[in-house]
Write a structure and sequence with these properties.
- By secondary structure, the protein is mainly β.
- The chain is built from no helices and 10 strands.
- The strands form 2 sheets. The chain has a 6-stranded mixed β-sheet with strand order 2-10-9-4-5-6, with no helix packed on it.
- A hairpin with a 6-residue loop joins β4 and β5.
- It is globular, with a radius of gyration of 13 Å.
- The N and C termini lie far apart (about 35 Å).
C-alpha cells in the first residue's frame, strides 16, 4: 500500500489549493478515503472523508463549506479542493484509506501566510 500526496505549497490567506493523492497496492474503489492534517505541535486530525460507493462525504467543522473532497476511482486518486484558506489551515496534509490502518505517505506541506 502506498500513498503519494502532492499539490501543497505557500498561499496567501483567502487563496486556494488542490491536493492530490495517488494510491496503490489495494483495490481503491472498495474503500473509504480520507484526508488528515498535522500542524506543528498538534496531533493529526481528520479533515474529510469520502465513501466508496455513493460518494457520501464528511468534513470537520473547521473546514466545512471551504474544502471539498472528491475521488476518481479510475485513476486511484483522491483530491482535496481547499478554498478560502486560513493561517490555521497550515499543516502537513496526508491521505489515508484501504485495508490497513496506520499506513501513511510522506504528506504535502500547506502553508497559509502573507
Amino acid at each position: 500500500v502506498q500513498f503519494v500526496e502532492s499539490g501543497g505549497g505557500l498561499v496567501q490567506p483567502g487563496g486556494s489549493l488542490r491536493l492530490s493523492c495517488a494510491a496503490s497496492g489495494f483495490t481503491f474503489g472498495f474503500y473509504r478515503m480520507s484526508w488528515y492534517r498535522q500542524a506543528p505541535g498538534k496531533e493529526r486530525e481528520l479533515v474529510a472523508s469520502i465513501l466508496r460507493d455513493d460518494n457520501s462525504t464528511y468534513y470537520a467543522d473547521s473546514v466545512k463549506g471551504r474544502f471539498t473532497i472528491s475521488r476518481d476511482n479510475a485513476k486511484n486518486t483522491v483530491y482535496l479542493q481547499m478554498n478560502s484558506l486560513k493561517p490555521d489551515d497550515t499543516a502537513v496534509y496526508y491521505c489515508a484509506g484501504g485495508p490497513y490502518v496506520g499506513v501513511w505517505g510522506q504528506g504535502t506541506q500547506v502553508t497559509v501566510s502573507l
